[in-house]
Specification:
Layout: E1 2-10, E2 13-19, H1 28-36, E3 46-51, E4 58-64, E5 69-70, H2 74-86, E6 94-99, E7 102-111, E8 114-121, E9 144-148, E10 151-159, E11 163-168, H3 177-185, E12 195-203, E13 206-213, E14 217-219, H4 223-235, E15 244-249, E16 252-258, E17 263-268, E18 270-278
Parallel strand pairs: 2-3, 4-6, 11-12, 13-15
Antiparallel strand pairs: 1-2, 1-18, 3-4, 4-5, 6-7, 7-8, 8-17, 9-10, 10-11, 12-13, 13-14, 15-16, 16-17
Bound molecules: the ligand N[C@@H](CCC[C@H](N)C(=O)O)C(=O)O.
Length: 279
Protein backbone atom coordinates (compact mmCIF):
# COMPACT_ATOMS: atom_id res chain seq x y z
CA UNK A 1 0.00 0.00 0.00
CA UNK A 2 1.36 3.45 -0.94
CA UNK A 3 1.01 6.27 1.61
CA UNK A 4 1.79 9.96 1.27
CA UNK A 5 3.87 11.59 3.95
CA UNK A 6 5.26 15.02 4.74
CA UNK A 7 8.69 15.47 6.30
CA UNK A 8 8.71 18.48 8.66
CA UNK A 9 11.12 19.80 11.26
CA UNK A 10 11.08 22.14 14.24
CA UNK A 11 14.60 23.37 15.10
CA UNK A 12 15.95 20.27 13.34
CA UNK A 13 13.82 17.80 15.34
CA UNK A 14 12.51 16.03 12.23
CA UNK A 15 9.59 13.65 11.94
CA UNK A 16 7.73 11.89 9.14
CA UNK A 17 4.08 12.98 9.28
CA UNK A 18 1.13 10.89 8.09
CA UNK A 19 -2.32 12.38 7.54
CA UNK A 20 -4.63 9.87 9.27
CA UNK A 21 -7.69 12.11 9.29
CA UNK A 22 -9.45 9.80 6.85
CA UNK A 23 -7.25 6.69 6.78
CA UNK A 24 -5.56 4.97 9.72
CA UNK A 25 -1.93 3.89 9.68
CA UNK A 26 -1.70 0.34 11.12
CA UNK A 27 1.37 -0.75 13.13
CA UNK A 28 2.85 2.73 13.69
CA UNK A 29 5.51 1.30 16.07
CA UNK A 30 6.93 -0.91 13.33
CA UNK A 31 6.85 1.86 10.70
CA UNK A 32 8.51 4.34 13.03
CA UNK A 33 11.44 1.96 13.52
CA UNK A 34 11.76 1.25 9.79
CA UNK A 35 11.14 4.69 8.28
CA UNK A 36 13.17 6.70 10.84
CA UNK A 37 16.35 4.86 9.85
CA UNK A 38 18.64 7.46 8.25
CA UNK A 39 20.38 4.90 6.02
CA UNK A 40 17.67 2.40 5.08
CA UNK A 41 14.52 4.50 5.59
CA UNK A 42 13.27 8.05 4.95
CA UNK A 43 15.23 9.30 7.95
CA UNK A 44 13.87 11.10 11.00
CA UNK A 45 13.57 11.20 14.78
CA UNK A 46 10.29 9.23 14.53
CA UNK A 47 6.84 9.40 12.96
CA UNK A 48 3.78 11.49 13.77
CA UNK A 49 0.17 10.61 13.01
CA UNK A 50 -2.36 13.42 12.52
CA UNK A 51 -5.66 11.85 13.54
CA UNK A 52 -9.28 12.90 14.06
CA UNK A 53 -10.34 13.93 17.58
CA UNK A 54 -13.71 14.00 19.30
CA UNK A 55 -12.62 16.66 21.78
CA UNK A 56 -10.24 18.94 19.84
CA UNK A 57 -9.53 20.08 16.27
CA UNK A 58 -7.26 17.06 15.73
CA UNK A 59 -5.20 14.51 17.64
CA UNK A 60 -1.42 13.98 17.47
CA UNK A 61 0.25 10.63 18.09
CA UNK A 62 4.04 10.55 18.02
CA UNK A 63 6.41 7.60 17.95
CA UNK A 64 10.11 7.72 18.73
CA UNK A 65 12.64 6.15 16.36
CA UNK A 66 12.70 2.97 18.52
CA UNK A 67 8.92 2.59 18.06
CA UNK A 68 7.93 3.69 21.59
CA UNK A 69 5.03 6.13 21.79
CA UNK A 70 5.74 9.55 23.33
CA UNK A 71 2.95 11.27 25.26
CA UNK A 72 3.83 14.73 24.00
CA UNK A 73 6.21 16.38 21.53
CA UNK A 74 6.71 20.13 21.52
CA UNK A 75 8.39 20.38 18.13
CA UNK A 76 5.95 18.01 16.41
CA UNK A 77 2.85 19.76 17.70
CA UNK A 78 3.95 23.01 16.01
CA UNK A 79 4.38 21.13 12.71
CA UNK A 80 0.95 19.50 13.16
CA UNK A 81 -0.55 23.00 13.53
CA UNK A 82 1.25 24.14 10.37
CA UNK A 83 0.04 21.10 8.40
CA UNK A 84 -3.59 21.45 9.53
CA UNK A 85 -3.67 25.16 8.71
CA UNK A 86 -1.84 25.07 5.38
CA UNK A 87 -3.76 22.02 4.11
CA UNK A 88 -7.05 23.74 4.97
CA UNK A 89 -8.12 20.89 7.29
CA UNK A 90 -8.30 23.31 10.24
CA UNK A 91 -8.46 26.88 8.87
CA UNK A 92 -7.97 28.51 12.30
CA UNK A 93 -5.03 30.43 13.74
CA UNK A 94 -6.09 29.42 17.25
CA UNK A 95 -6.54 25.66 17.42
CA UNK A 96 -6.62 22.79 19.94
CA UNK A 97 -4.73 19.52 19.55
CA UNK A 98 -5.35 16.40 21.62
CA UNK A 99 -2.26 14.50 22.83
CA UNK A 100 -1.71 11.65 25.28
CA UNK A 101 -0.84 14.32 27.85
CA UNK A 102 -3.96 16.41 27.34
CA UNK A 103 -5.34 19.01 24.92
CA UNK A 104 -2.94 21.80 23.95
CA UNK A 105 -3.73 25.25 22.55
CA UNK A 106 -1.77 26.50 19.51
CA UNK A 107 -1.61 30.10 18.28
CA UNK A 108 -0.27 30.43 14.73
CA UNK A 109 1.62 33.38 13.25
CA UNK A 110 1.03 33.46 9.51
CA UNK A 111 1.97 35.35 6.38
CA UNK A 112 -0.73 34.82 3.79
CA UNK A 113 -1.38 31.08 3.63
CA UNK A 114 1.99 30.18 5.22
CA UNK A 115 2.59 29.47 8.91
CA UNK A 116 5.77 31.19 10.11
CA UNK A 117 5.80 30.20 13.76
CA UNK A 118 3.59 28.61 16.37
CA UNK A 119 3.13 29.40 20.05
CA UNK A 120 1.94 26.51 22.22
CA UNK A 121 0.48 26.50 25.71
CA UNK A 122 2.47 23.53 27.01
CA UNK A 123 0.57 23.28 30.31
CA UNK A 124 1.76 23.05 33.91
CA UNK A 125 5.06 21.41 34.70
CA UNK A 126 4.81 18.43 37.05
CA UNK A 127 7.46 18.41 39.77
CA UNK A 128 6.33 15.52 42.00
CA UNK A 129 9.18 13.00 42.04
CA UNK A 130 6.91 9.95 41.78
CA UNK A 131 4.57 11.52 39.21
CA UNK A 132 7.39 12.30 36.73
CA UNK A 133 8.10 9.32 37.36
CA UNK A 134 11.37 8.90 39.26
CA UNK A 135 12.24 6.57 42.14
CA UNK A 136 13.79 9.31 44.32
CA UNK A 137 12.30 9.17 47.81
CA UNK A 138 11.70 12.93 47.75
CA UNK A 139 8.81 15.35 47.05
CA UNK A 140 10.73 17.04 44.24
CA UNK A 141 14.08 16.37 42.57
CA UNK A 142 15.71 19.79 42.67
CA UNK A 143 19.48 20.12 42.26
CA UNK A 144 19.83 16.61 43.66
CA UNK A 145 22.95 14.39 43.34
CA UNK A 146 22.72 11.46 40.93
CA UNK A 147 25.56 9.02 40.25
CA UNK A 148 25.75 8.01 36.61
CA UNK A 149 28.44 5.51 35.68
CA UNK A 150 30.50 6.44 38.74
CA UNK A 151 30.31 10.20 38.22
CA UNK A 152 28.12 12.50 40.32
CA UNK A 153 25.83 14.99 38.55
CA UNK A 154 23.28 17.38 40.08
CA UNK A 155 19.88 16.90 38.46
CA UNK A 156 16.48 18.59 38.45
CA UNK A 157 13.56 16.48 37.21
CA UNK A 158 10.43 17.85 35.55
CA UNK A 159 7.57 16.31 33.58
CA UNK A 160 6.07 18.34 30.74
CA UNK A 161 3.67 15.47 30.02
CA UNK A 162 6.79 13.36 29.46
CA UNK A 163 9.75 12.87 31.81
CA UNK A 164 12.87 15.05 31.77
CA UNK A 165 16.11 15.18 33.76
CA UNK A 166 17.89 18.54 33.51
CA UNK A 167 21.63 18.80 34.19
CA UNK A 168 23.44 22.16 34.39
CA UNK A 169 27.08 22.04 33.23
CA UNK A 170 29.86 24.56 32.59
CA UNK A 171 29.82 23.72 28.90
CA UNK A 172 28.06 21.20 26.69
CA UNK A 173 29.84 21.30 23.32
CA UNK A 174 32.47 18.68 24.20
CA UNK A 175 30.01 16.44 26.05
CA UNK A 176 30.30 12.75 25.03
CA UNK A 177 26.50 12.63 24.75
CA UNK A 178 26.44 9.34 22.83
CA UNK A 179 28.09 7.67 25.83
CA UNK A 180 26.39 9.38 28.77
CA UNK A 181 22.97 9.96 27.13
CA UNK A 182 21.97 6.26 27.28
CA UNK A 183 23.34 5.97 30.83
CA UNK A 184 20.86 8.65 31.95
CA UNK A 185 18.06 7.31 29.73
CA UNK A 186 18.26 3.81 31.25
CA UNK A 187 19.26 4.77 34.83
CA UNK A 188 17.54 2.64 37.50
CA UNK A 189 16.02 5.79 39.11
CA UNK A 190 13.86 6.35 36.01
CA UNK A 191 11.34 3.51 35.68
CA UNK A 192 9.95 4.74 32.32
CA UNK A 193 13.38 5.86 31.04
CA UNK A 194 14.01 9.60 30.69
CA UNK A 195 14.80 12.45 28.28
CA UNK A 196 17.94 14.30 29.43
CA UNK A 197 18.76 17.97 28.79
CA UNK A 198 22.37 19.13 29.24
CA UNK A 199 22.34 22.88 29.81
CA UNK A 200 24.96 25.60 29.78
CA UNK A 201 23.66 28.88 31.21
CA UNK A 202 25.12 31.49 28.83
CA UNK A 203 23.69 34.38 30.80
CA UNK A 204 20.47 35.13 32.67
CA UNK A 205 17.51 34.03 30.49
CA UNK A 206 19.73 32.53 27.76
CA UNK A 207 20.52 28.81 27.67
CA UNK A 208 22.44 26.45 25.38
CA UNK A 209 20.95 22.97 25.37
CA UNK A 210 21.87 19.56 24.04
CA UNK A 211 19.41 16.75 24.45
CA UNK A 212 19.41 12.98 24.58
CA UNK A 213 15.86 11.82 23.91
CA UNK A 214 14.35 8.66 25.26
CA UNK A 215 13.73 6.41 22.27
CA UNK A 216 15.48 8.58 19.65
CA UNK A 217 18.99 9.41 20.93
CA UNK A 218 20.57 12.82 20.38
CA UNK A 219 18.12 15.01 18.51
CA UNK A 220 18.74 18.52 17.23
CA UNK A 221 16.02 19.89 19.53
CA UNK A 222 13.30 18.92 22.00
CA UNK A 223 10.39 21.26 22.69
CA UNK A 224 9.18 19.63 25.89
CA UNK A 225 12.86 19.40 26.92
CA UNK A 226 13.43 23.13 26.36
CA UNK A 227 10.34 23.86 28.53
CA UNK A 228 11.59 21.49 31.25
CA UNK A 229 15.03 23.14 31.09
CA UNK A 230 13.56 26.62 31.58
CA UNK A 231 11.35 25.43 34.46
CA UNK A 232 14.45 23.85 36.07
CA UNK A 233 16.49 27.01 35.40
CA UNK A 234 13.85 29.18 37.11
CA UNK A 235 13.76 26.79 40.10
CA UNK A 236 17.57 26.89 40.33
CA UNK A 237 17.72 30.70 40.03
CA UNK A 238 19.28 30.97 36.53
CA UNK A 239 16.22 32.42 34.76
CA UNK A 240 13.29 34.63 35.74
CA UNK A 241 9.70 33.46 35.94
CA UNK A 242 7.67 35.40 33.33
CA UNK A 243 10.72 36.25 31.18
CA UNK A 244 11.21 35.19 27.56
CA UNK A 245 14.11 32.73 27.74
CA UNK A 246 16.04 31.94 24.55
CA UNK A 247 17.09 28.31 24.33
CA UNK A 248 19.77 27.64 21.68
CA UNK A 249 19.44 24.11 20.35
CA UNK A 250 21.57 22.35 17.74
CA UNK A 251 18.99 23.16 15.05
CA UNK A 252 17.76 26.62 16.07
CA UNK A 253 16.22 28.63 18.89
CA UNK A 254 13.05 28.30 20.93
CA UNK A 255 11.58 31.05 23.10
CA UNK A 256 10.17 29.69 26.34
CA UNK A 257 8.24 31.59 28.99
CA UNK A 258 7.50 29.93 32.33
CA UNK A 259 4.65 31.88 33.91
CA UNK A 260 4.17 29.50 36.85
CA UNK A 261 0.78 27.92 36.10
CA UNK A 262 1.79 27.18 32.50
CA UNK A 263 4.73 27.30 30.09
CA UNK A 264 4.58 28.98 26.66
CA UNK A 265 6.78 27.79 23.80
CA UNK A 266 7.30 29.65 20.50
CA UNK A 267 9.24 28.37 17.52
CA UNK A 268 9.32 27.71 13.82
CA UNK A 269 7.71 24.81 11.95
CA UNK A 270 9.19 23.96 8.56
CA UNK A 271 8.16 21.61 5.75
CA UNK A 272 11.18 19.82 4.23
CA UNK A 273 9.63 17.63 1.52
CA UNK A 274 6.63 15.50 0.60
CA UNK A 275 6.64 12.00 -0.80
CA UNK A 276 5.02 8.61 -0.98
CA UNK A 277 6.26 5.41 0.58
CA UNK A 278 5.35 1.74 0.15
CA UNK A 279 4.14 0.34 3.49
N1 LIG B 1 11.12 15.70 20.54
C1 LIG B 1 10.10 15.86 21.46
C2 LIG B 1 9.81 14.83 22.49
C3 LIG B 1 9.56 13.44 21.89
C4 LIG B 1 9.16 12.37 22.88
C5 LIG B 1 10.24 11.94 23.84
N2 LIG B 1 11.38 11.36 23.19
C6 LIG B 1 9.65 10.97 24.86
O1 LIG B 1 9.66 9.74 24.64
O2 LIG B 1 9.16 11.44 25.89
C7 LIG B 1 9.75 17.29 21.79
O3 LIG B 1 10.03 18.16 20.95
O4 LIG B 1 9.16 17.56 22.83
Amino acid sequence: MKRSFVKMQGCGNDYIYFDCLEEELPQPEKWSRKLSDRHFGIGGDGIVLICPSETADAKMRMFNADGSEGKMCGNAIRCVGKYLYESGAVPKKDMWIETLSGIKRLILTTSGSQVLSVTVDMGSPILGASEIPTLFNLDTVLDHPLKVNGQEYRVTCVSMGNPHCVVFLNEVESLPIVTIGPQFENHSMFPERINTEFIHVIRRNELRMRVWERGSGETWACGTGACAAVVAAVLNGYCDEGADVTVHLNGGDLIIRDVGETVWMTGAAVKVFEGTVEL
